[in-house]
Write a structure and sequence with these properties.
Elements: H1 2-51, E1 63-71, H2 73-83, E2 87-89, H3 92-95, E3 101-109, H4 110-118, E4 123-128, E5 131-136, E6 143-150, E7 161-166, E8 169-176, E9 183-188, E10 192-199, E11 206-212, E12 217-219, E13 223-224, E14 244-246, E15 251-254, H5 266-269, E16 276-279, E17 282-285, E18 289-295, E19 298-299, H6 304-312, E20 319-325, E21 339-345, E22 352-363, E23 367-379, E24 382-392, E25 395-405, E26 411-420, E27 423-434, E28 439-449, E29 456-465, E30 475-483, E31 486-499, E32 506-526, E33 532-552, E34 557-577, E35 592-610, E36 614-631, E37 637-655, E38 659-670, E39 681-685, E40 688-691, E41 699-710, E42 714-734, E43 737-760, E44 765-780, E45 786-803, E46 807-816, E47 819-821, E48 824-826, E49 829-840, E50 845-852, E51 861-865, E52 869-878, E53 883-893, H7 909-912
Parallel strand pairs: 2-5, 6-12, 6-13, 18-21, 40-43
Antiparallel strand pairs: 1-3, 4-5, 6-9, 7-8, 7-10, 10-11, 14-15, 15-20, 16-17, 17-18, 18-19, 20-21, 22-23, 22-53, 23-24, 24-27, 25-26, 25-52, 26-29, 27-28, 28-31, 29-30, 30-32, 31-32, 32-33, 33-34, 34-35, 35-36, 36-37, 37-38, 38-41, 39-40, 41-42, 42-43, 43-44, 44-45, 45-46, 46-49, 47-48, 48-51, ...
């Protein structure tokens, strides 16, 4: 019985448990349903909370940015709704009749915006929660304020403006102009206290309180204006700002409002940016660091001559500032392009046509000419820009070379002359269209080409001696290389921008297509060997897609995030023929074709936060690089697939108004150029050649620097840079043949200190100087490892003289001490330039006379010294180094000022650099 009882009790327990489980199952299902409903409710609430503030917005506090141009009231109301949480209620039949409204672009409260839109109508408005009701005013004649304005002699005063506004809301203003007798009439619609303001350029201004009561017409006594006691003539009062300002990740050189605002151009202004100098066709920072040039956040990738011509065509009158990023953040591509300098243009494109035309002539040992035209046309929501650049500027150099082969003692003197008569063409067209206040779409296309010319000739004369002391020539060699090098570089870019809020938050989406093609046929003829013919052809195609978000949570907190995908494909071939023409027999052993494909996927994010005296910006970028290449002749393949991280940190501390400290760090990558990877042999002559290297690897660098800025004028920077496994040119020999080849054989450590000091000696004499001191160590890997180090100095200085009659003279100079040329010795260089400038027609036309290196000081020289041979190269003449020229730029514009074309970065520009 006990056992049976136990069985029964167990069964009862199981049944009870089953019932409980069934009930709990129903409860669980019910609970899940309730939870799901609660989840939806919470999610919806969160969305609402994110969309609307917890407390209802007041139309007297909430701000919107708005402009109307011959548009209807309905359009204006929809634009307000698009930027705010308010919704309007009205009779459509009544409101749609109000058209042809004009409202200048500005940021106003919703209340003030509605007053502006409705002030000449019979509508009134009122807010109910987040709704705004428009309704016709009750029939009323309003209140009239009448009066007369006269001068001290009881005569009317010219150019008088009268404004009346409510004391409780002075932004709501009604205005009028007096008639020829000085009488005026103002209309207001409410009783209360008003401020009446009367002003004229020839008299004192007057402000007085006016009370509008129940009387429909208020007659004021005569208002008497007295002449001002002091009149200033020929005085211009400008908003003065610091010439140099510092934010957490960049140094800003403010052109607008400075002495450099008129009569300059974008190229010349590089010479007044701290640490920056233009040396020939190169723009350098601190004497040796490369510079990447951007205009309105778009990288300008032009070869030397074309870049300089493009920058000359940008007048200083259209430039707002220069932004210098010595240590770029994670929002920029990790591909190292040197220091970034972004030219920010003024946002003042006008309705109608505006632009500039420039031209120039200069003499080296050949005649050079250039011309540039920049046009901007604005009509309604459409903005179109176009730029055409043409130059015919022969390029040349003359090298004097001595060589000694140490094993035999053989010695040679060599003269190499290169001359190229070519013309370069570049043009750009861009347009954008504003779908509405928030959204903009646009398209840009640019093309650069260098059509080949039959006269591209390199001649080499070599005299051989038995040793360096010998006076008689053992033998001689003469080589003539004739080539018709030409290239075409095109890029098309489409973009979409959505301004997310009134705090300048925005989302950018873009796509770019880039094409690069070249032809380089060369016939090499020599008196000592049979001639041969090489023909290098190639093309590169790049597709880039990007999405970038900039979110301002407040005035002190900003998030940037984005993604970018780049797909590149290159196809290069080199035909080597035994003979002097393209029809000569092909040499298959030395001919080759190389195909290379590369895919880069990148994600980045930065977070910037500012406090009272501190600013901090943290960033992280990750990039996946996947590439593979193959040689058609040898079957050799290369490939790699890897992820890399690139952090950046910027920290700024301000102490009072005169002191600022900035600490910056980043990690960067340098990938080999597409043409460096081609396994081809490029001949200058049979005894000097360059080999490509498909085994080149990317290398990395770390950069850290601390900058101190005093009074927004003087700066002191100390820093450290290092690179591992860097690509450098290694020069070797096989007998009397010199071979150059890029290899990953160098580790570099670089410690530097840079000082910038501007001094205004007198009102007409300004002196600026920048000095950089470096200690650089190079570890060279190879069969015989070697460590080399040098202490180098770079000094740049300029004197600016402002003379009567709007004449301007600038004398500038640069000195670089002995340094490194790759891993070899670079001798010191120096140069002095003189510029005389004059402006006409209210600074619309500027002219300049330039004397580049009139004393013929610039003669770069380097020496290669290995255990096998020594080679000393002196460049005695160079096309851009020494010349005399005259240049003109004319700026024109018409129409009223209008907001600018959208400044959106074309994401493909970074990839384009490696072509």
């Amino acid at each position: 019985m006990k056992n049976s009882a136990k069985v029964w009790n167990t069964g009862m327990i199981c049944a009870h448990l089953t019932e409980i489980l069934f009930i709990n199952k129903q409860f669980i299902i019910w609970l899940m349903r309730v939870s799901f409903v609660l989840f939806l409710f919470i999610l919806t609430s969160l969305q609402l909370l994110m969309a609307v503030e917890v407390n209802g917005q007041r139309m007297s506090e909430y701000k919107v940015s708005l402009k109307l141009e011959e548009e209807s009231l309905l359009t204006g109301l929809k634009k307000i709704e698009a930027q705010s949480t308010f919704r309007f209620y009205y009779r459509k039949a009544e409101v749609k009749q109000i058209t042809g409204l004009h409202l200048a672009f500005n940021t106003r409260t919703v209340e003030n915006t509605l007053y502006e839109l409705l002030k000449n109508t019979d509508f009134s408005f009122r807010q109910i929660d987040n709704h705004i009701l428009l309704e016709k005013r009750r029939p009323q004649t309003g209140y009239t304020v009448k009066g007369r304005i006269i001068g001290q002699h009881h005569k009317p005063v010219e150019l008088v403006t009268i404004q009346i506004s409510k004391i409780t809301n002075q932004n709501i203003t009604f205005s009028a102009l007096p008639d020829t007798g000085g009488r005026f009439i103002l209309k207001v619609y409410e009783q209360g206290d008003y401020l009446l303001r009367v002003s004229s350029p020839e008299t004192d201004s007057l402000t007085q309180t006016v009370t509008v009561g129940s009387t429909e017409v208020l007659q004021l006594p005569d208002i008497v204006l007295t002449e001002t006691a002091i009149q200033l003539k020929n005085v211009t009062i400008m908003n003065k700002r610091a010439l140099i300002s510092r934010s957490v990740d960049k140094l800003t050189f403010n052109v607008e409002g400075s002495i450099y605002e008129k009569g300059e151009n974008a190229l010349r202004l590089f010479n007044v940016i701290p640490g920056v100098s233009v040396l020939g066709k190169n723009i350098l920072f601190r004497g040796s660091e490369s510079v990447s040039v951007y205009v309105d956040n778009r990288r300008i990738l032009l070869p030397g001559d074309q870049l300089l011509a493009y920058l000359r065509a940008i007048p200083s009158e259209s430039i707002k500032s220069y932004e210098l990023k010595a240590v770029p953040g994670a929002e920029h591509d990790a591909q190292h392009g040197g220091v970034i300098i972004n030219i920010v243009l003024k946002s003042e494109y006008k309705y109608g046509l505006s632009g500039s035309i420039s031209t120039g002539y200069w003499y080296t040992k050949y005649h050079n000419t250039r011309g540039n035209a920049f046009l901007n046309y604005r009509a309604g929501k459409l903005n179109i820009q176009g730029n055409v650049n043409y130059s015919r500027a022969p390029a040349f150099y003359e090298d004097n070379i001595t060589q000694e082969f140490k094993s035999t003692g053989a010695f040679s003197r060599q003269t190499e002359k290169y001359t190229e008569h070519y013309h370069a063409i570049a043009y750009n067209i861009g347009l954008d269209y504003k779908l509405n206040y928030q959204q903009t779409v646009g398209f840009n296309y640019n093309m650069f080409s260098n059509p080949g010319d039959f006269s591209n000739i390199t001649t080499t004369n070599i005299d051989y001696f038995s040793n360096a002391e010998a006076s008689s020539i053992d033998s001689s060699s003469y080589t003539n290389k004739n080539t018709r090098f030409s290239y075409t570089n095109r890029m098309a870019n489409a973009f979409y921008r959505n301004k997310l809020d009134t705090n300048d938050s925005k989302l950018d989406i873009g796509y770019s297509y880039i094409y690069y093609g070249l032809k380089d046929p060369s016939a090499i003829e020599t008196n000592s060997l049979n001639g041969f013919f090489t023909n290098t052809t190639g093309k590169s195609m790049i597709h880039v897609a990007n999405a970038d978000l900039e979110k301002h949570f407040s005035n002190t907190l900003t998030l940037n995030a984005g993604a970018k995908y780049t797909a590149s494909g290159t196809d290069y071939s080199m035909d080597y023929r035994i003979g002097l023409s393209e029809q000569s027999p092909l040499d298959p052993l030395r001919s080759d074709r190389f195909r290379y494909n590369e895919y880069i996927l990148a994600f980045y994010s930065t977070l910037a936060k500012s406090f009272k005296q501190w600013e901090i910006k943290l960033g992280l970028r990750t990039e996946q690089t996947n590439y593979h290449g193959k040689s058609a002749s040898t079957g050799q393949t290369i490939g790699r697939n890897q992820w890399d991280l690139f952090p950046s940190v910027h920290l700024n501390k301000k102490i009072g108004e005169n002191h600022s400290f900035t600490l910056s760090y980043n990690r960067r990558i340098e990938r080999p150029g597409f043409r460096q990877l081609n396994p081809f042999v490029i001949y200058t002559n049979p005894y000097t050649l360059q080999e490509g290297n498909p085994n080149l690897l990317s290398f990395y660098s770390n950069n850290i620097q601390l900058e101190y800025l005093l009074k927004n004028k003087y700066s002191l920077t100390i820093g450290y840079q290092n690179t591992n496994n860097a690509i450098t040119t290694n020069v070797t020999n096989k007998g009397n043949v010199i071979i150059s080849k890029d290899e990953n054989i160098s580790d570099n450590d670089n410690v530097f200190m840079s000082v910038y000091i501007p001094i205004r000696i007198t009102n007409w004499w300004e002196f600026n100087t920048n000095t950089t001191l470096r200690y650089r160590t190079i570890d060279i890997r190879g069969t015989s490892p070697l460590q080399r180090s040098k202490f180098t100095q770079n000094i740049w200085a300029t004197n600016k003289f402002n003379l009567p009659g709007k004449y301007f003279i600038e004398v500038s100079g640069i000195y670089n001490s002995s340094s490194f040329y790759d891993i070899y010795d670079q001798f010191s260089i120096k140069k002095i330039d003189i510029t005389i400038k004059k402006s006409f027609f209210k600074d619309r036309l500027s002219s300049s006379i330039e004397l580049q290196d009139p004393f013929h000081l610039y003669k770069p020289q380097y020496e290669i010294n290995t255990p096998e041979f020594s080679r000393n190269v002196l460049r005695s003449r160079l096309d851009w180094a020494r010349n005399f020229g005259i240049h003109f730029t004319y700026n024109f514009s018409s129409g009223k000022k209008q907001s600018s074309k959208e400044n959106i970065d074309a994401a493909g520009n970074e990839a384009r650099r490696r072509l």
